[in-house]
Amino acid sequence: MRRRISCHLVASRLLFVLLSLAVLPLAASAEEGPVGPWLQARMREHAAWFSYQGSGEARPGGALGLWRERPAGETGLPAFVPPTSLAPLIRAVEAGVVNITTVSPRDSGLAGMKRSTGSGFVLTPDGLVVTNSHVVSGASKIAVRLSDGREFSAEVVGRDASTDVALLRLSGSEMGDLPALYLGDSDRLEVGDWVVAIGNPFGLDHSVSHGMISAKERVLGVGQFDDFIQTDALINPGNSGGPLFNMKGEVVGVNTAIISQGQGIGFAVPINLVKDLLPNLRENGKLTRGWLGVIVNDDRESAERRAPLVKDVYQGSPAAAAGIRSGDRLVAVNGRTIGSYLQLLRKVALLAPGTEAKLTLLRQGTTQEVAVRLVERPAQEAAEGLVQRVTSDEDLGLTLRDLTPEVAAPLNQVAWDGALVSAVSPRSPAEAAGLRMGDVVTEVNRKRVKDAAGVRAALSKGSSGASILLRVKRGDSQQYLAIAR
Question: Rounded distance, CA 177 to CA 82, Å?
């Protein structure tokens, strides 16, 4: 074959030389006409093509200038290792994947019991197992079988329907040390990472499928804690509750849902969300939501990912005790970066009351950390009475706060020497006038004010429709700003 290709190449080159000699007089005679330049261009292209044959060099742009090709022997994409076999990974982790069988009363009052199957994985050597909440919901009997054939009865330690996560405890003789799996870091997953799902679809023990991460932070409309990993690894009925592994053999998700209309679209709960929830389920048996006590900008409609901005702080709340104040940006919770209102809600609400959380704040360009001990979320009506919001006039879009000694000291301001602007509503009269968060209002219509109540009292004396003249301290400078009502 190689000899035939070589002979063909020699013949092609000889034909090219003969054609070149034949068309030279024609090209010369048509030098002034339209044929000459076209013919010369084609000759140059053919000459370039022949010059690259067998040279092993790259042809930048190709012979016709339409594409790029790598030179022979180039390694290709950096840091990319094509997968070969997943067998060693599967052998290392499959012992920790379990089959779950439940017996529960039939729906709608029908006689008899129904039997269902699902999947799960061993969390601790002493018998804690993670699965989906819907797998064990309403079950009167739960049996868990390991890959080595051992079977144990199980009871629900805690479960939460909003995240579809449940924690079970096995019981029985000869349990010994169970093959607990390692948990990974789902925040480090990237779209395109390879993953493996192991479970018991349709009752078929330890079926394996593989694919990649298709998307992160998918919202399916299940609840306020929607934060699903999307994967094209096949997930079928019976896979629910089984683990999703990365290429290190670490659990990075709990397989939880499928879209029946789609092909190869599956979803998993991120393991970092499960990590936050597990202590809550173990201690309380359900999701008892922790409460920080702040009001932040709800950026759910914004495409821009930014750390949530604190608008107000509730009196007597954990946030107030930790010194968090209006204007702070909440950058991270327990070292995990947050970039939206929903991320803050998930990370705080999943932590049990009494948990001490470490919050990272951004305040006037400076990063600092504070420790906050969360409490149980109060009833909504009780929380409404705790807010420290002092708004001078709702129509102005201006939120003010007293310059107490605790507030004034970090800002290098004099206590009770005006009212601090803690928030300015977008597209409001206050924003149009040029007011900014961090400004200190010292006068209203030429009258001195010392706190937010003084600003409100001065505004109430103004005429309807008249402009409001504010004297504002910004840094080391003073200026007057007029707000149109």
Answer: 36
The single residue of 134, 137, 147, 428 carrying the catalytic annotation is 134
Longest dimension (CA), the chain: 102
CA-closest candidate to residue 98, choices 277, 251, 283: 251
pLDDT of residue 182: 95
Active site residue 206: no
55: Cβ–Cβ under 8 A, 6 or more apart, which residues?
none
The 3-state DSSP class for residue 102 equals: strand
Task: For residue 8, indicate whether it is catalytic.
Answer: no
Higher pLDDT, 427 or 116: 116
Instruction: Quickly list H helices, 174-307.
Output: 271-284
In the chain, what is the straight-line distance between the N-terminal and C-terminal CA atoms, in Å? 88
Q: Look up residue 275 and give its two tokens.
A: 């990590």
- Tokens encoding 154: 């199980």
**Do 312 and 293 meet the contact criterion of CB atoms below 8 Å apart?**
no
DSSP letters spanning 268-329: EEEHHHHHHHHHHHHHHSS---EE--EEE---TT-SS--PPBEEEEBTTSHHHHTT--TT-E
Selected catalytic residue, list 116, 133, 160, 164: 164
Question: What type of residue sits at position 171?
Answer: S
Q: What stretches of 403-452 adopt beta strand conformation (E)? A: 419-424, 440-444, 447-448
Quote the distance between the C-alpha of residue 388 and its chain's center. Answer: 31
The pTM score is: 0.60
Residue tagged 């005429």 (tokens): 463
Dihedral (Cα; 52, 55, 61, 66), 10-degree rounding: 50
Q: How many CB atoms lie within 10 A of CB 268?
A: 28
CB 319 within 8 A of CB 293: yes
Spatial CA neighbour of 150 closest among 132, 130, 172: 172
Catalytic entry in 186, 240, 326, 340: 240
pLDDT digit string (tens) for 182-228?
A: 999 998 999 999 999 998 866 667 788 888 999 887 766 555 567 78
Catalytic annotation present for 134: yes
CA 468 vs. chain centroid, Å, equals: 44
What is the spatial distance between Cα 112 and Cα 325, in angstroms, rounded to a whole number? 58
Q: Identity (one letter) of the amino acid at 427?
A: R
